[in-house]
Amino acid sequence: MSAYEYIKQAILHGEFPPKMRLTEEFLAKKLQISRTPIREALKQLETEGLTVSMKRGVRVRHFTELDIRQIYDLRTLLEGYAAAQAAIHRTDSDLGEMATANDMYEKAIDQYLETGETTIEDILKINHSFHDSVIQASKNQHIHSHISKVVVVPLIFRSFYWFNADQLRHSLDAHKTILKAIEKQDTERARVAMHEHIYHGRDQVMKHIDVIDQQYTGVEEQKVSFQTER
Amino acid sequence: MSAYEYIKQAILHGEFPPKMRLTEEFLAKKLQISRTPIREALKQLETEGLTVSMKRGVRVRHFTELDIRQIYDLRTLLEGYAAAQAAIHRTDSDLGEMATANDMYEKAIDQYLETGETTIEDILKINHSFHDSVIQASKNQHIHSHISKVVVVPLIFRSFYWFNADQLRHSLDAHKTILKAIEKQDTERARVAMHEHIYHGRDQVMKHIDVIDQQYTGVEEQKVSFQTER
DNA sequence: TTATCACTGTTTGTATACAATGAACGAAAG
DNA sequence: CTTTCGTTCATTGTATACAAACAGTGATAA
What we know:
Two copies of one chain form a homodimer. Chain A is mainly alpha-helical. Chain A is built from ten helices and three strands, in the order αβααββααααααα. The first copy, chain A, folds into two domains: about 5-60, Arc Repressor Mutant, subunit A (Orthogonal Bundle), CATH 1.10.10; about 65-215, Up-down Bundle (Four Helix Bundle (Hemerythrin (Met), subunit A)), CATH 1.20.120.530. In chain A, strand 2 (about 50-55) and strand 3 (about 60) form a beta hairpin. Chain A is globular.
């Protein structure tokens, strides 16, 4: 696993919480490598928007409620467009891939709810692969990088994805609706269905956002908070 | 000027044409600095999509006609959304900035056509600042990075922006229409006006795309072409 | 002739040393 | 007591040396 992937995962899994200061040396010691590859990783994460480089050091970016809202707006716009384009350009093999991803999704959900041998992580991955297949079917190569940038942020809050059976079923139904619209080449229906699906996901995240905000206060070094304390 | 800015400018100005191989040592010697900052610059350019890293070396990305078409589709989507949001969220000071940018645009065009003391470069910059002011008025902080990624590619072809008087006037009118719609908070009109404006710009670029494609054949090293020659 | 293999040179990947910079701390002066 | 200045230390920025990887080349064998 590259330094980039490691740090990204650590951030997304909450190991490095928002506002935490990431010094190069600290990460280098942690990964047992030199600072050089660390710097590259940090630069990349910064251009992706996951970290913010201050004058001194790099910090994990803190996303406010407004940030999440705006990011979801963009995701809705982009994935809605992808769905509409997929409805135009989809081939039979595209439909096959989307259907496969969705079948796997259904199975994973069943397994998760019944036996518990499938984890939420697995479900998120499979969900992701369905969305990917839609993007692929849109035949716009350039849209992918934009969406991946916008998709990653909510994952920071994945620990709050305590999906219950209803939510999971609802999500599966949404996928099926989207798939059907793309199959029938109904562009507007595909776009709207994707819109609703993503906005529903946003609502789930927003429910927990204040809990999240609380959890990460005081992560930045005390020196900084002392100033505020006056 | 940082290495990143230098290389980016060089690419956008056609000094490093598409498919050209950019070895780190070459750039380091050219800029009289070590490879370390060069590597960072290249990594950043790669995540922005201006260069492509092969197994051996980094090359300036070659954009096909399809690429340009798809990139413009995304730009239309994003800037159209920005215009619509601006129509909702614009403040008086936003309107002021947009109006100022547009006044400067008008003056620059007049100067360019009459006295010639203003260059196309200047006009492009001012045009850019109008679009920026719209994005700013949209109040979505995150949209900016997406648009800047998508705006930069057509600049590679800026040498083909031989705008005539008609085109420049048309562009100015479009700006005015957009501005008026945002002022009146007519979201749909703002979006559509922006759509038309950008698609018109795309058409200008597409007219010259085959000329561009021809110009840059044979830039890659001969060793590669020899294989094809059989 | 063609395929395979080892060798060579070029180029990237990584480690490390040192320079530059900025923040924190403390001392001195108002 | 507060402000300002300079010193010190932590941290990033840059250069450079070396390791690793890969493409190209030529030799050898089928």
